[in-house]
Amino acid sequence: MTQSNAVPGKFISFEGIDGAGKSTHIGFVAEFLASRGKTVVASREPGGTGVGEKLRDLLLHEQMDLETEALLMFASRREHIAQVIAPGLARGDWVLSDRFTDASFAYQGGGRGLDRAKLEALENWVHPHLQPDLTLLFDVPLDVARARLDATRTLDKFEQEQADFFSACRNEYLRRAAQFPDRIVVVDSTRSIEETRAFLAEVLGKLVA
Ligand code: TYD
After folding, report:
1. Tell me, what's the pLDDT at 94?
2. Which of 64, 111, 113, 183 has its CA 20 to 30 A from that of 176?
3. CA separation for the pair 126, 75 (Å, rounded)
4. What is the pLDDT of residue 7?
5. How far apart are the C-alpha atoms of 185 and 1, rounded to whole Å?
6. CA atoms within 13 A on the CB side of 174
7. C-alpha distances in angstroms, 112 versus 97, 104, 106, 184?
């Protein structure tokens, strides 16, 4: 992909609305890369560090002011970059993050309506020079995502939101995919797991080469 972080490792983020299926595929990507001799670090946001996991617990279960929510997402991210992402990339590892800054634009921006300029200011503060080398955006229609969520788990604060919230999140994700076509690859996640894996192997094969 076109981003060139000035470090030896590679950074891949996984995105999509809740229920889109990204979690199903992260393990496959980790195994694929390991089979090609890469050292993989798999992590997540919010979370991924001791402080970040405490913030995740607050973020997923407590109601709070929208700006507090955005600031805590970026606080978790700052810690994640400092403790996990930057050191991993400096070692030459492949860092996989279950969500990164696109999620803040999609959820706090698209879903909740926070001014995009504020999110851009936070992004420029917290990681002015770091972007994923590749972002895999798992995309499905809302009804498919909702059916998957209802079938699999107890819902957290975000997952309890209504269809118009997820529709706005999905639209913002797709808008960003159009804005950053060299970084964000949209994965049609309505297909079978096998078909999606084949597509992922093709995309990753280019990055590994
Ligand atoms: P998710 O990644 O879906 O984890 P799980 O599969 O364990 O439920 O949950 C994280 C939630 O946090 C998800 O609903 C999206 C939300 N989120 C934001 O609203 N903004 C952000 O910046 C990030 C990273 C996540």
Report:
1. 98
2. 64
3. 8
4. 78
5. 10
6. 11
7. 23, 10, 9, 22
Q: What topology does CATH give the domain 11-208?
A: Rossmann fold (3.40.50)
Best CA proximity match to 209, nearest among 14, 28, 38:
38
Q: Is 73 in the pocket of ligand 1 (CB under 6 A)?
A: yes
Measure 199 CA to ligand 1 centroid, in angstroms.
24
Average pLDDT over the chain reads 95
Residue 184 token pair: 């964000």
**β-strand partners of 176:** none
Q: Is the distance from the beta carbon of residue 166 to the nearest atom of ligand 1 less than 6 Å?
A: no
How far apart are the C-alpha atoms of 207 and 209, rounded to whole Å?
6
Q: Is the pTM of this model over 0.90?
A: yes
Looking at this protein, which amino acid is placed at residue 113? Answer: G
Mean pLDDT, rounded, for 43-60: 98
